[in-house]
Amino acid sequence: MTRDNNQLQNSLCEALVHAYKDKKELERTLKTQLNWDLNDIDTTQSYRGIVQDLIERRERRGELRQLVIGASKGNPGNPSLRKFVQDFLPNLLIDIDDKLTPGLVILLTNYLRHFLEFHIVNYCCRLVIPDSLNYSDQRFIALDDNRLAPDVKWLIVLNLLLKEYPDGITYIIKFVICLKREVNQRTLQQNLDHWLEQIFQLGLYPIFCQEILAIRGYLSIFVKPSSVYIEPAFLVNWFISIETTQQDGLIQTRLISPQEVDLSAANRSQLGVYYNLQEIEESLFNWEHQAETMLENEAEQLGCSYEGLTIEFILPYKYFSEPVERWQVRDILQWQEESISVGQKHRVVVRSLDRLQKYSLFSVLHDKWQNNKQFLQNNPPAQEIQARIEQLNCLASCNLDELTQRLESSEKIALKITCVMPKCTAVESSTEALDQKFGGLFEALVKGSIPIALWFRQSSSGGNVESTMDQLLTLDRLTNLNELLTGVRTLRNNAAGNHQDPGHHLAILCDEPERLQQLKPLFRGSPLREVST
Q1: Which of 77, 94, 130, 237 is the most exposed place for a label (fewest CB within 10 A)?
Q2: Poorest-pLDDT segment among 68-82, 329-343, 354-368
Q3: Is the CB of residue 298 less than 8 Å from the CB of residue 242?
């Protein structure tokens, strides 16, 4: 133990002894502020000995900062505690971050500690820290407490940014960038610029060296039927990820783990979360809101454009017929926060869980997709593109085995299902017969390695369904599938409230192998694959 640590511990002991007159008073504060007790300490020794023992034990556990913060909150006006934090603030922080050297931590601390506009600090913290959207959060309420010394408030903030949210997602860098943008003090802005330059020169946080031009977000929802319950139940995992486009054209993707998961419905398992379809739809309302809030905060904090949210439902083929794009979410543009179908608000797409589970399906899809990519790169005329798009005009009369063989032996890039399914199968009126027909169609689609499929959920009389599809399956959109999904979203939005418009009933499957490859790590780490009994 260095002399500095000895001096710090001795000074903290003196401060605590002066701030709390006896063991009972100290113990009450520890319980109230930190939910700690003194059960593991020999309380028969002197009060000073108890305090010294407490400090040593918490220091070994890496909890010295929490002790100082909790004690300061419990007696915010005590001059001994205030002076201790003032004297030792940098020392309390230098061991926090593995990447930042003690010198860089001390330099930043000295730049920040004289900035006293904590409403701005509070704003930047909430913008940077992903689970801080609740304004009753006790961690941030302390920043509004005028009784707390400014150095204590900075200890709270830097402990959060450097310790509770360490590297991986570089919260302290984001906070400094945000604060630099928000403050009006030229000297502080220059100091923060100087600190960021040192960080970038050391190559510690290379993602921030390039200006980020735009971000795009994904809400990925994996759904698998349960083999545990007799009643219809699904094991569901969901993830939020951000895709950033930098000035040099580099695209990077990183995962944000949701901090709050809806566990309100019944039938939950330690291996995952079980839902029925109605519960998935009801939970989507909260998942979408959380994803949108995180992504908008990210864009605002980085000062770049926000290219919107893509919601992808990764489903077994038997459930492609679920109208997921019509499920309701919050419409933030309405004063009354009215609901809106998620397909009007965002890019919503169905992807195949089977192709993630079975490598043989993915492998054939990948090979065919590469051939089609090469074909499209040669800028073929529209007629040649149409020749690579399979069209199904009547599901009722379709031989699904022949369709599967035809798709397997061809280089088709897309399938247009121009018949309207309920009408086309009206001769088979039972629900079971319809489900079998739809399931057989989607099975043929997956086995036939078709990456893109368009179909209509219901009949309409407001437009030509084939031309609606043709305006989507163009060279520009087939070579930029984000544009394809945006085009689908535009058609859905334009058809809002008009059930006669084909866009109102439009569904899309889009299994670009590159995107499936990005989803594989999420799927592999998901409990979805662990339930087999």
Answers
A1: 77
A2: 329-343
A3: yes
Instruction: Compute the distance between CA of residue 241 and CA of residue 222 in angstroms, rounded to an integer.
Output: 14
CA geometry: angle 105, 111, 114, nearest 5 deg: 125
Q: What is the pTM for the complete model shown? A: 0.63
The closest of 454, 444, 472 to 418, measured between CA atoms, is: 454
pLDDT digits (tens, 9 = 90+) for 221-270: 999 887 766 566 888 888 888 887 766 666 667 776 544 333 333 333 33
Residue 40's identity, in one-letter code, is D
Q: Which H, E and C letters describe 492-515, residue by residue?
A: HHHCCCCCCCHHHHEEEEECCHHH
Residues 6 or more apart in contact with residue 159 via CB below 8 angstroms: 65, 66, 69, 93, 96
Is residue 174 a contact partner of residue 128, using CB atoms and an 8 Å limit? yes
Distances (CA, A) of 104 to 94, 154, 173: 9, 16, 12
Per cent of the chain over pLDDT 70 is: 80
Q: Which residues contact 501 (CB under 8 A, 6 or more apart)?
A: 460, 462, 463, 494, 495
CA-based torsion, 491, 495, 501, 502: positive or negative: positive
User: Taking the mean position of all CA atoms in its chain, how far away is CA 178?
Assistant: 20
Candidates 284, 177, 302; CA nearest to 244 is: 302
Q: Please state the rounded mean pLDDT for residues 317-333.
A: 86
Cα separation of 125 and 120, whole Å?
A: 9
Q: pLDDT tens digit string along 153-168?
A: 999 998 888 765 544 4
Do residues 174 and 183 touch, judged by C-beta distance below 8 A?
no
DSSP 163: I
Rounded to whole angstroms, the Cα distance separating 126 from 175 reads 10
Residue 457: closest CA among 488, 429, 419, 489: 419
End-to-end CA distance of the chain: 54
SS3 content of the chain, % helix, strand, coil (to 5): 50, 15, 35
- pLDDT of 431 above 60: no
pLDDT higher than threshold 70 for residue 15? yes
Where are the domains positioned within the chain? 1-92, 102-209, 215-350, 355-519
What's the sign of the alpha-carbon dihedral 81, 85, 86, 87? positive
Helix (H) or strand (E) holding 315: strand 305-315
**Closest of 310, 346, 316, 312 to residue 331, by C-alpha:** 346
